[in-house]
Every structure is written in structure tokens, then in C-alpha cells.
Amino acid sequence: MTTIGVIGGTGGQGLGIATRFVEAGEDVIIGSRTIEKAQAAVDKVKELLPGARNIRAAANPDAAKAADVLVLTVPLAAQKDTLLSIKEGAAGKPLLDATGPLESCIGGSATKYIDLPEGSAAERSQSILPDAKVICAFNNISQTWFMQLGEPIDCDCLICGNDQAAKDLVAPLIEKIPGVKVIDCGKLERACIIEKITPLLIGLNIKNKCQFGGIRITGLDRIKACDTK
Ligand SMILES: NC(=O)c1ccc[n+]([C@@H]2O[C@H](COP(=O)([O-])OP(=O)(O)OC[C@H]3O[C@@H](n4cnc5c(N)ncnc54)[C@H](OP(=O)(O)O)[C@@H]3O)[C@@H](O)[C@H]2O)c1
């Protein structure tokens, strides 16, 4: 069993990811700036999954120290301070970064992307925490999907990062969430492409008056079969 620390796990995205990992039988710690808020989030997960024992609350720095794998689910405006608060615990660990650089973070539209000097939110995380193994992940799966408990999620999880061993470690973990297929998109420099799909999906959701827009990459198995002939 892997211990997963969801940093800022008290919002919609973190709570959804935490709930799915608890449902999958992993050990989850919900992190927050305050232990009371983390405990309230844990209570919410226990309401959704009665009898769940594999979840607990901690302050973000303690969650990071105790976990094997970290998930970052805070708004862009909180990214730097939150990462600096977990610097010690995150060193050497895979850190799955869901941060979306959307214009809504600065009072604009959630359908527009903010270009960051580092290239992407995930590269910004890597520059703030050079010792963590940052992997861009969970950007394209909405909290609405995570919260459809009992239903497989109809969306791939596009990931990228510079540490292959870390990606190989987290891919089977992420695929414990029913329906989710992990697509390794390569180095962290691809994160801007993955992150830009999110405002596209939000725009499509608005246009179609729904909340389940997702993305599937197809045909990759077929290419593999051709190569091996
Ligand atoms: N929601 C989605 O469907 C979705 C989908 C894809 C990607 N994402 C990305 O995932 C991240 C989290 O999304 P969310 O909707 O869950 O966000 P959220 O609810 O706004 O915030 C998540 C948590 O971040 C912490 N936080 C918020 N503002 C902060 C601040 N100013 N300083 C420090 N900590 C702060 C809070 O935790 P505490 O108060 O407990 O510390 C909060 O509960 C975002 O970057 C978003 O772009 C979201």
C-alpha cells in the first residue's frame, strides 16, 4: 500500500482524488494549512465511503513528510507558498501536480491559459522544489468525474515528467482509479500542452452545458503492434 499525501486536499479536486484513492484501497493523508480543515475533509470522505479507515488528516508539511507520493491540488496563487511549506518532506518524492494556470486565478476566464515564465505550472513547481520529482498529472480530469463514485472515469490521465522511474511508479497507482488510463507524454516540458487542454475542456463543458468533458488518446496500441512486426 502506498501512502499518498494530497497537499491542499480540502478543495474540490483534492477531495475527489483523495476519495478515489481511498476507494482503491490506498493509504491517504489529506493535507491542509489547518488540521481542522483537513479533518473536516477526512470526515467528508468517510461519509462518502462509510467504514474507510485508510485516510487521515495532517497539516501540509506533516502530510508531505509521512507520504510516499504527493499530489498538489491548490490554485496557482497558492502554489509557491504551499510548495515551500512542504520542501523538506517533498525532497526525492514523486509530486503529482494538478495546478491549472488559468486566467480565473487573476480574475479572468477559466477558459483561458496564463503563460508562465517557467513554461507551465508543473515546471514552475519543479523550479520551486528542484529536489522533488514533479509530474504533471490530473489536469484534465474534473472534480465532477472524481466525485462520480462507483462510475469509471471516462478520461485519460496525461502525465509528463523528467524522472522516468517516478512516472513508472505512479502510473499503476493512478490506474487503480477505475476507467483512468495513464498516457506518459514525455518530459516535463510537455506540461504546457497538457495544462492547455484544461481550459479547452472547461470551454467545451460550458458550451455543452455539462461537466464531464474529458480526453482520450487513441490508437497507441495499434502503432505498437505495427512496430513489432
Ligand atoms: N476543480 C477541478 O475540477 C480541477 C480540474 C483540473 C485541475 N484543477 C486544478 O487543481 C487545483 C485545485 O483545484 P480546486 O478546485 O480544488 O481548488 P480550490 O478548491 O480553490 O483550493 C484547493 C485548496 O487549496 C488551498 N488554498 C486555496 N487558496 C489558497 C491560498 N490563497 N493560499 C494557500 N492555500 C490555498 C485550500 O486548502 P486549505 O485552506 O485547506 O489549506 C483549498 O481548499 C487548481 O490548481 C486547479 O486549477 C482543478
Automatic annotation (TrEMBL):
Protein's UniProt keywords contain Nucleotide-binding? no
Which terms are listed as keywords in the entry?
Answer: Oxidoreductase
Pyrroline-5-carboxylate reductase catalytic N-terminal domain location is 3-99
InterPro entries membership: NAD(P)-bd_dom_sf (IPR036291), NpdG (IPR010185), P5C_Rdtase_cat_N (IPR028939), STEAP_metalloreductase (IPR051267)
Question: What highest taxon heads this organism's lineage?
Answer: Archaea
Q: State the PANTHER family in the record.
A: DUDULIN-RELATED, F420-DEPENDENT NADP REDUCTASE
Q: What is this protein called?
A: NADPH-dependent F420 reductase
